[in-house]
Amino acid sequence: MSLRRIRIGFLLVLLLLLALTVLACYCFFKGLYSYLILIIPAIAVLALRLATVRMRVFRELEDFHEAVMYRDFTRSFPAGSGDGEIKLLRKTFNGINQVFHEVSSEREIQYQYLQNLLEIADTSIISYNLDTGKVAWMNESFRKLFAIPFLNNFEALQKRSPDLYRKSTQLSPGTTTLFTVESPRGPLKLQLYARDFQTMEGRFRMISCQNVNETIDRTESLAWQKLLSVLTHEIMNSIAPISSLASTLSGRISQMPPAPQMEDIRVGVDTIRKRSEGLLRFAQTYRSLNQVSNLNLRKTTLSTLFENINQLFEPTLIQKGIELDIIMKDPSLQYEMDGGLIEQVLINLVLNAIEAVKEKEAPYISITAQLMEGDRLQIRVTDNGKGIAADLMDSIFVPFFTTRKTGSGVGLTLGKQIMLLHGGNIRVESKENTGSTFTLAF
User: Fold this and answer.
1) How far apart are the first and last CA of the chain?
2) What's the number of domains the chain is made of?
């Protein structure tokens, strides 16, 4: 039954009830009491019918309200039974329920989609109630980054990571800051962003932590490669003709008869030749920084790799009385890497360690390998040498920088580039007069 027909029917019943009431009043005042015996029951029947229909409508509304309160949008109202008004009402309720159900399903799908998207994102995110401190949500990236499997209240973060807690509480909403924080994976450069928002449950703050270590390292590495490429190209183009000309002049002068004035010329030409050859060797050395671009990845047995290192340095270690300890929980441990490049990195680190422990009474170097959470390999080279001064820590990976008289300043820079190509990094922990630990984190 259509809504129009229901309205017409309802108006007709009201008009009929009104007409009967007027007729009853007329009969009463005219003394026609015999007609009232028929009219009054008819009025009562019509009034009872209207009241019954209204009560049934109210009951139906109450049932629908209860379903909405409990979000039971799967509930169905039987539209095939009942009077015309009730059928139409139930059909309307079913239509509303269907719309609510579709909206709820779409919201649930969107929620699941966004939640899964945030879970797999590299950005670490945590949200908490500003009034109670209760953590509303924390994604998997945040858990892994700070090794926090569960966090009920944001204040508990103060014990886990004091620096992060302090920076997060001091950060103004809508602003970004960059800082270094200690984590189980070592020092991390984080870009921190905070955003406040209001819901029916209260005021909340969402904090995102973006690990920018790799981005900064890759940007720096690319910048150094471009700079070195330009420098080596210009040096070689400029010095090569000078070196060639100096060698030619030196040969010509050596064939000339000896003379006092020619001796000074010979010495000068030889000096120019030697220095130009030295500059060419210098340029060739730093050109190696730009030659590492592709990896030959294959399963490499770590024990074999370490044994090669041990055999290479064994004569030197015995001669200098240095103890080299190789520590592995699983001798059969394998990992996909470019074994040749990683071996070169380890050779440089062991050479640095030998130099660092040479003045120690009981010089000691260790190489360890183990799988961390997520099957990520870490190789550590540790020594008990003189350590690295705190003011030099930020410079040791810069090309050309070295504290050794015979060093070229290439080893650590090249090692870092190789680790970045492996999708990892190289970290250092050092304390003066105590020792250093270099970690290759894959």
Assistant:
1) 72
2) 4
